[in-house]
Amino acid sequence: MAPRNRAGKPAQKVLIPVVANAPGSLPSFFLRTKLMPPRPSPELLSRPRLTERLLANLAHSVTLVTANAGSGKTTLVADFLRTQNRPFVWYQLDHTDADPFVFLGYITHGIQQVVPDFGMAMFSYLQEAAGELAQHPERAVDVLLNEVLERVDQQLILVLDDYHHLGADTAVHAVLDRLLAYLPDVMHVIIISRELPPISLSRLRAQAPLSTIDRPDLLFTDQETQELFRKVFDLELTPVQLAEYRQRTHGWITALQLVRQVAQRTPASRENGGKAEPGDLVEVLTRSERDIFDYFAEEVFADEVSETQHLLLRLSLLDSIDLDTCAVLYKGMNCARLLPNLVRRNVFLTVASDGQGEEYRLHPLFQSFLRRRFRSEVGRSGVAVEHARYADYFAARKAWEPAVRHLLAAEDFDRAAAIIAERGREWIASGAIGSLASLAGALPQAELEKHPRALAHQGEVARLRGEYDVAQTFFRRSVMLLRQQNDKEGEAEALHSLATLARRQGEYETAFAYLDRAIELAGENSAVHTKCGNTRGLCLVAMGQWTAAEREFRAALQSAEERNDEYYTRLIAHNLGTPAGIRGDFGEALRWLGRMLRADLQGAPMPQEAIAHLNMARCHLYRGAFDACEKHLENALDRCQMFNLVASRGEIFEAYGNLYRERHEVERATEFYERAARAYDDAGIALSRVELLEELALLSLQVGNVGTARAHIERLISSRPIEKGEINFYTASLTRGRVMLAQGEYGAARTELANTLKYFHGNGLYYYEAQASMALAACELKLGQEPDLLVHLGRALELAARFDYEYWLQREVAHHPELFAAEEAAELLPSEVRDQLPSLRAQTTSKVQSVQVEIETRTLTDLSINMLGPIEIFRDPTRPLGADAWTTRRARDILCFIASRRHRRASKDAIIDAFWGETDLEVVEKNFHPTVSHIRKALNSNQPLKQNFLLYREGDYQFNQEFSYRIDIEDFDRLLTEGENARRARQFEECIKAYESAIALCRGEFMQGSYDLWVEEQRTYYGKQYLRLLESLAAVAEKMQDWGRSMQLGQRILQDDPFREDVHCMLMRAHAATGNRGAVKDQFEELRRLLAKELGVEPGSEARRTYQELLK
Amino acid sequence: MLIIENFTNPGPGAMQLILEKITIPPRTIHISRPRLLNLLYESMGSCASTIINGRAGSGKTILAADFAKASGRAIAWYKVDGPDGDLQIFFKYLIASIEQQRPGFGRENLQPILRTAGIEQVGLLAEAFVYELLDGGHEPLLIVIEDLHQVYDAELVVPFFRRLLPLLPGDVHILITSRTMPPAPLWRLRSKQRLFVIEEPELAFSRQEASDLFEHYGLSREQATIALDHTHGRASALNSCAESLALEHIDSSSQVPAMTGNQISGSN
What we know:
The complex is a heterodimer. By secondary structure, chain A is mostly helical.
């Protein structure tokens, strides 16, 4: 049957014939409108990042655009084609096209619209071989392909829009499969579909890279959303609004558009010429949900079978969905098949995998829709039943947080409060204090009061958050209620918590009162009993009663061990180390402190370990065990970063400073003290509360800067009088005494030190006593009070021997050898120290001197990158990055690339262009982020402090501006400019100095060994600049008749460019000036030979003339 | 009432068509509303169809008629009533209204199918309808279907429009007025530029429009503002309020009448 044409209107309106083997079917009409591209949307935002990909994909045979409903697939492709001047066929598919006959007919018609004589063979085949077509539809494809090869001679794009409308069960898929398998290169097919079409994609992939634009690609980025609102809706979004939109819509364009339509409909915006006020937008977002939900109902939900609908409605109550949970909660549903299938079909469900399990999440708006719909279907009570079921499930798995969340939703407040009361402690121990606080806060007060332990847990959360007043109110209320309920253990717990609050506020007597009552209530072998002992010990430490504290700790430790309470055993054992450490018995202290760390036991790290490591590092430092100290500091910092312990960070940096100070690495010590000061500041800790100023004073003292030392220590003492803690006052006073000694104020120093010695001796603080004795002895030497000197020296040495202060003693002896000049004094020393006396003396002096020199010449830099020559990257010159830091050279070169850009900043695109060039985007995507992460890791390799030097901001990678950098090309450029400026100002000396410094930076060609295009560009530039500098300097040298220098520079220029006749001339002049005629000849001969050999020419007239004139 | 013989299908089974139903209603209101006309004009340019959705008295019909006259297109008007839910009647009127602009419309393909068609063939009827519309050489057409809600319970409506709207040729636009939204999925059509919806809030008079209207009656801006707040911008209520105030203005003195809620009740 021939296509039925109306007279005079050929091929415009064709009735596609009835399929021959389907008798009784009705005719179907060929409708040109199905071959029309969609009209341009008035709210169009061009999306270059995607259209550029579409353009690049044209090089391949197929592009797949798959994403959920309303993601802007069609709009994107239509917009792309509108901007391209390329012929295309747009085929809008619907369910009626699931017939190969119709499908091929429309494609043929479509091509005919572009290539007028196309379709003769195909139409005739469709008419003649309808039977065969039904049986072997793919054969018709061959006819079509042959005709394409014959008739189509410029690239033609075929768009199959809404391919998913065809359904799974149609022979069209086989047709398309064949079409794509043998597609001539003159054609490109773009398939737009909600789901991946059931064609053999793997084979396509094997043949050529299959280009796909999928859901994540189509989601609007923040930048695009901002752009959309700015350009299309004429609105500027604030970052807060942008974040709100992102959170609700995930960048789903339909939601964004619906929001905008609602915004336009609001009366306020109408009066305002269609512009909504940005302030209203968030409200508009909420109001537009009705439309969005309608959209979901019609476009997404209605497409699912009832079983899936049933499941989706219920799953919407879960915040995240994992297959194990589903398998238990929905036994008969085969979720393991259903959910991945929904993800594949882009039904607003995404899956994330962490390598261990998969977690599914509904789009937030879709989830809201499902929840509302579920409630309207089963009513509030029905929803509550489901929530209660979920709560049971989670409670059975000890997942308290989701259990309580669902109980709250089911309005079963009593059970929710009961769970918080019973499980709060485990909950807090797991670190999820925020969720406990918010869930408990959502419960009615009356329900919580029925379970006063829950109140106590709320108090504990407040305490951990530092809200002490709130915590106190909670605890007091819970104590009262627990007493009414006769819950002795609970009451004792709450009382203990009140005691810890009192301790923190320095109200020790109150704390003791609470503890006494708590112990009365608690059983002899209870956990509260142990805790109370520990807290009492901590109070005693703070009060300076170390022996009493040790007694308490020992009792508490025994109680913890009896109860097999590993946690408290570790904690209390560590605490037992602190009085020993304060007393100065570091060996004993280390034994106890070490029990906090469990090298033998596997278990999750604990935040308290940071403190243990720090304390151990301090003890090791006092004993001169630097390596052990450093190791513990590294661990402390690691824990500190892991648990984000802001307050401890400063202390750790401070301890690092002390370590470097002891090692005489003054620069690094200074750096770490600076870091400590910043960290204390970040944590809101005043310097009067910590020892940093004292340590700084000691550092200044060490480098001989006594004035600064005095200023530091006076500042500390004035901000921390004796009432604020005796021990701290006297340790500062000890330092002040030593500074006075160094300043020559012997009398005042003696008084100061005598006072401190009295205090330290009276309180059994042996390390400090030894130090005070030694310093006092030094005073007495100056004051000529020999007998006292020997007494104090003797005491210091006695303590050193008893507590093994060998390192300290050696250092003191080296610092103050004059103390031991007298025979009697030297006699007091242990023999091995005495033997080293002369050599120690020599060593320390030279060390101190070298340190001072170092300070003057070097400044602090966090990261150095040298590119003028072989690449050098280091953070600390004494501590190179790990040998395997740069296993991928690309990572290293990318760092250099960013460093070499303006503002040390490069866009992601620029990086991809420079380093991946034409590589397939998929490959780039796979490699890009691992490479960037490699850079970050490399810069932290073998470094104690992990820092992030590379930030990603608004599409750009840039150097973190918090740190300082030294990049040789920046220095080079700066010196070049300085030199130029000086030259212009006729300050030639300055100019030469700058140029010489710049040349000194050049160790070879730019990034020696790298040959990327961008490197070559930079290399040429710096090569030219280098030569220019040499020339300028050589010219100056010649002018100043510095012949040696001019010859040296000339030779260096010739190394890079041997054909420079002018430089040869300069060298000849220099030789002549120094009276070396032979060398003039040689130079000319060299030039002549070179030119003849390499270029086949004679030297130019200028060179010849110079030569002849010089020889005259 | 004018009655015409159904000239497309003469013979024994011939039915009579009411001419009024396929004629643009006369204009009654006194102001033009450029805001909404522009909106409709934009929609005609960018979408295949428009629905004006609003309760009685919200000014749908007047707006559609105004736009029909201003659109610059050939107009096929069809006012739907309850009995038109019958497939044969519906198509007879629809064809007749278009035939006034495009003589011979529907004869070749549509009517032969229609003669035997049942409800299952509505999709095919839509395709044939489009096929006939594709017949080139005519001026662009605006088909206005007034009060489509009258037949929302008829089986034919949803499948017909669902098939029709995605396929409409570029030079044909369908404008539907209705008191409720059609009981069918529309979002896909909306997101694919096939359908534009004007809802009641948009139909409501803005402050400026109310002022213009009142000025027409010789009334003040203040009166317009008060009336607007009382009527929530509903067209017919606002209009009758203006009328009664204007008459009062003529009858009594130049005294500005006091506004009360009673005076400004809706007209429906």
